[in-house]
Amino acid sequence: MTTLGLLGAMDEEIALLLADMESKETLLHSGITFTKGILYGKEVVVCKSGVGKVNAAVTTQVLIDRFEVSAILFTGVAGAADPELNIGDIVISSSCQQHDMDVTALGFPKGVIPFQEVSDFPADRTLVKLAEAACGRICKDHKFIVGRVLSGDQFVADHAVVKSLNDTLGGACVEMEGAAVAQVSHLNNVPYVVLRSMSDKADGTANVNFAEFTVEASRRSYEILRDILEHW
Ligand code: ADE
Prior knowledge:
Elements: E1 3-8, H1 11-20, E2 22-29, E3 32-39, E4 42-48, H2 53-65, E5 71-80, E6 90-98, E7 120-122, H3 125-138, E8 144-151, H4 159-169, E9 171-175, H5 178-187, E10 192-200, H6 206-230
Helix pairs in contact: 1-6, 2-5, 3-6
């Protein structure tokens, strides 16, 4: 049986998955708690990476090396960068890129990792299709789009900043882990997809909205992941 790696950055983002799991066994690696078990009939490892790209990269590599996962699905919340998106709407990653990779002083375009072929890491097309199908079944009151996820080690809470990220890098949403998960998955040839429900619009009200809507948005992302696994 293949094992799926399911991760979120914060407790809110994985709490409902952990609650649904059976035959749970917890293991600690690199300071991260990994919970192995059965979820909707599938063998899974669920974990909380912690916030930011380094935490996400370490967690992803452990999922691949120690648990030999065959695919990685990230669930969580994000700030909307596409002006058409509202709180509660969903972004399924077409790809993920680091928006804070900035070597423009040496002539590299913003977001480009120097001397590397890929900087915008494509998500697995089959996983994207599965996520789209799940959203089609369960997103009744909210939009879902497939778009580029932008990641950086910063909580974006400024309209001018998020507008510029959308204008220059074409980001659908901003968050803090996806591109690290994507890059490590790419390096190891493991398929991945990131699912993000919008908790805020990454503008001047983002801190207030994030606090208010994170639990609800996390639930929406969880429901999509659950539906994907139920139809796997
Ligand atoms: N996650 C949720 N909202 C975010 C934001 N505005 N910036 C970065 N990460 C986020």
